[in-house]
Structure prediction request, 689 residues.
Amino acid sequence: MSRTTPEHRLSLCRSAGRARFLWIGFFVLLAIGSLRSQETVSSASVAAKPAFEAVPKVQLSRIDHGPTPMTSLADWQLHTFRIPAPRSVVVSADGVTLAKNHIGKRLVCRLTEKAKTPEEAVARVRALAGEFSVGFPLLKIADEEVKRHFQDRPGLPLPVSPVIPGSFLCALEEVLPGDLALDSVYVRDYPEGELSAHLLGYIGVSLPDQHGPIGKVEYSFPPTEGRAGMEKSLDSEWRGRDGEVLRLIDPQGLVRHQEIVREAEPGDTVVLTIHMGMQRLAKRMLERSGRPGAFVAVDADTGDILAMVSYPSFDPNLFEGGISQVAYDALAKAEDAPLFDRAVTGAYPPGSTFKPFVALAGMDSGHIDGTHTLFSGPAGMVIDGRYFKNHSSTPEGLMDVRYALVRSCNTWFYQAALNMGATPIAEVSRRFGFGVAPELPLLSVAPGNIPDPAQYGDPRSLANFSIGQGQVLASPVQLAYAMAGLANGSYIPKPRLVRESVDPETGEAVKYIEPAVAHSLGLRPEDIDIVRDGLWGVVNHGSGTAGGASMRNPVVYGKTGTSQWATGGKMRYLAWFSGWVDAERPRIAFAAVTQGEGFETLSGGRSAAPIAAGVLRAVYDEPETYAVTLPEGPLRQVSGIVAAAPVPPEILIEDLGPRTGIGGFFRRVFGGGRRHVRTFPEEPSFPEP
Prediction:
């Protein structure tokens, strides 16, 4: 049994992680992370001390021209300009900067300084190409746009280049022609590139440079907005507060007076729960698999998302300043869909990873009496005229729910579902978060699907329901949180991706997001323990399907799964492995999925389990690096799991299919049919395999 109750663990976690921050100059040491108690709450320690860099600001200074500049000359124009604020700096729990800003430079031209007519303005812009080295980036501006700018905005410079790369910028340190100048803009950087792409997304220009008549309020340079990921879903929080400046501009476009009305305020620095060390490990293992897939790891007690990787990914820096249509089409039309977030948006049949929740539904509804209820494991069954097979080509004998999980016996779960019906399965699976979109600050969070029992209660549908196929859909992040519920035994934690917001100038905590419970499970602890025993056996029993994922310390609990999934009119195989580690601070729950190519068949134990095992072994080989704690030993004792026994003669076969034709052939060869259940008053003692 666990050393503390799940409620007590959540209480400890709520008391943890409330670090305070101190800035030194423009650099900060941020004391964050979960403050994990060793024996009591008072004996907490800081998990991580990430360093932040300063938030750059476009520097504006007051410009005066004479004692009364606002009324100096009649042809000088006074305008209000907004100064876009730098967006929030985003860092991981282990102190890695994921998104930041730097100040870029672009070239602007004061047209009226040398041009007297719209035609001369066009000629001046066209002449720029000959004044710079080959390859210098210049915007392609239509002649009509240049003319409109000259006529409607004579006092405002015309931007003629995008942000200039550093190699060209160095050469511009020489004196520019008098009508040209460098203008400052904010540039968004994603230092970790593909590792944070699906999480953070990217930004785009919300209002491009204008060429028509001057409005009441203008922007000094184009403001930006989030276009994908957290950049979009949290755009209002991350974009900061625009500044405002008054400028008096002469007919040649020179600023004669500048007065700052309001300084731009950058968005608060954001601390995520993601551990970039784990994120890198997950990406490495997914790459090693050679197939598209996803991996999610969460703290089963606090709900912190520790790693969430979709593979393949893309570089969000490509979108800075606008991505070309050719480059975007290459990403959007790529066969392996790098823009698609498989971890959060992907909804797939969970296969046999769904069986633990079917088992709990049977026990909760009273149709499975713990380990006393036994079903046989034939190689196949004909149900309502259709043949449903087990993964094993030979009958596996009589077994209880724990051993059925160890062996992932399909035909055992067909019988369990046919006895209990669809309603208990749907009701219990929803308690674990299936069929509802997790509450994440991301776009397009898949709700998955739990079918309506009233429409999915026929025998064939029940067979599919019992093994996570048919209309049952789940995302990797949903499955990870469902496993978190099995790990803590009491509740599904509310997902937490943002841990804290920090004032970027003072270093003071602005908002701390407490760990919370999404909803309680309301299941009997003894039923959950039986399922836990079965998932221990999947990895650690000699007959388990994921023996390759076992570890000495901490012990891994898990469930393999294989399913079929149709995409783009083609059938694909999916392999799953999900579970948790028997260790606190943190108690990591996880889900890994990988997708087969073409007609490639996969298995959870062979194809998905190595992904999770590779991450977990590396993490616990270096516990200090990854901010985890090795337990002194198993946190709970596992009851002895018995193997299957031969089917006794008093277990009768009820034919569910035809005696002739293809169904009859399979029934005769593979032993199809439903076995009547025999309930033993005491747990039998069958020999271990």
